[in-house]
What we know:
binds copper (II) ion; globular; 4 helices; 5-stranded mixed β-sheet; 2 domains; 338 residues; Immunoglobulin-like; mainly beta
Amino acid sequence: xxxxxxxxxxxxxxxxxxxxxxxxxxxxxxxxxxxxxxxxxxxxxxxxxxxxxxxxxxxxxxxxxxxxxxxxxxxxxxxxxxxxxxxxxxxxxxxxxxxxxxxxxxxxxxxxxxxxxxxxxxxxxxxxxxxxxxxxxxxxxxxxxxxxxxxxxxxxxxxxxxxxxxxxxxxxxxxxxxxxxxxxxxxxxxxxxxxxxxxxxxxxxxxxxxxxxxxxxxxxxxxxxxxxxxxxxxxxxxxxxxxxxxxxxxxxxxxxxxxxxxxxxxxxxxxxxxxxxxxxxxxxxxxxxxxxxxxxxxxxxxxxxxxxxxxxxxxxxxxxxxxxxxxxxxxxxxxxxx
Length: 338
Ligand SMILES: [Cu+2]
């Protein structure tokens, strides 16, 4: 904004004809001081917010995996690179494409630029079917260009990475604003490959963990020796482990065996996939239902809901889905404490 010398700044002119009483001089001084105070306060908040906010530059691929043993090829995301304010943390991730996909750990206030590269080979049998792949995220904020869905859904554009001419692969960039109030664990998944629902069911899913910004929040004072992201499908659990110290991620595949050291704290992130309502239990353990003082030993969780809880590892146990039909399908795994 430029200052115009011929125009009086910041004050309305007062003439003898005015009906309103002229403002008291000390009143206007008070207003100026109050305005200045608010301005300084707002600027210092902005500076504090900026100094804590990190910028994430992420590059991922979507790839075809090996045969699943039944003649089907699955799809998986792979972390190509992840820098946080210029520091490379790519070695926290598996060097391979994994199901579940990489767990992206963020803090409220962060900004993310995620470039997705479609590395899925062209399939001549799929002519006319969308071969575009995307990342559609829950929880964090973004504008419509970063929605990661097809125009048939968002009425705007197909927001994904498609195939270029002669089977070259195209990338697409998403921007996420990890705004205040977005703390939580959220799924991300493809929404564009082969259908407007995407290929989540072929392996293109992962999670975002947004930790709260303020260091005084109880969750930040915890040191977790392990974190487990457990995705609850309609026929199996899928798991991803994050080491509390090295932050390294390892995949555990289907109905994984989890392990923890006795008397250490473990944080579980449950994310329900598919369409069933599940009843998750970790036999012998109780935990606080988030946001309450209620101790529970089972949680009902439906499509794309999440439930995050912390336990202190005491005894080896089994985790399971107590929903009868899911239990029949063998949705059970072990939690080994040593
Ligand atoms: Cu979704």
